[in-house]
Give the backbone structure.
Amino acid sequence: MKNSVKVAPSIISANMLKLSEEIEILERSGADMIHIDVYPLMVFAFEYSELANVTIGTLLLDFLRKRTSLPLEVHLAIEVDSNIITEYIKLGADVITFHPEVIDNSEEIGKIIDTVKKNNIKLGLATSVSSDLAYIKKYAKYADLILLTTSNPNFSGKIKIQESENKIIQIRNLIGNEIDLAVDGGVDDEVGPKFVKCGASILVVGKYIFKSKNYLEAIRRLKDKCIN
């Protein structure tokens, strides 16, 4: 794990009407990677198992891959299998992140991990602040990245800062210092440094960047506060 924090703008918060321009600005502004959330089109008040697997994730990834050389991390907040994973790999994902706790079949989890690894793609494991860490403990040895979301996956919960700090510490103690730990949800130049102090190495950032008047200044300010 590098000493400097990486900033991964969450592209779901960008202006989709001028996405090409947004990507160009992010590249010039010091973004280290792009975080792509893949949610079903209907998500509110449902659990994973109740969600229809209808997304625009593949279209978005295809669009972005043709326009940037920045690493693209795809967060699959949907139920997946090895076939779905293969689609995202073919379209140019650099990191595939999925939630192992929503897959009942351990054999399928193994297939997903094998599919990612044999294609030389980085593997991410996602968990929420309210989830048990049993799956992270079981599969962390295969992971290049752990992603912690600071609210419940169905959006019904608010950002949980203190709980997330405690969870970051737990995960970092569990995985050691060689695996990246990303945190997604509520990150700004006040919360982000707290997460980094607890052990986060990647900050997934949405509104803090995209609502700012100057992406370069926003990213620079965030990084400076995290290392000072």
Observations:
- Residues 169 and 198 are 5 Å apart (CA to CA).
- Residues 42-54 have pLDDT under 50 and may be disordered.
- Strands lie at 6-9, 34-38, 72-76, 95-98, 122-128, 145-149, 180-184, 202-205.
- The chain has one domain: 6-227.
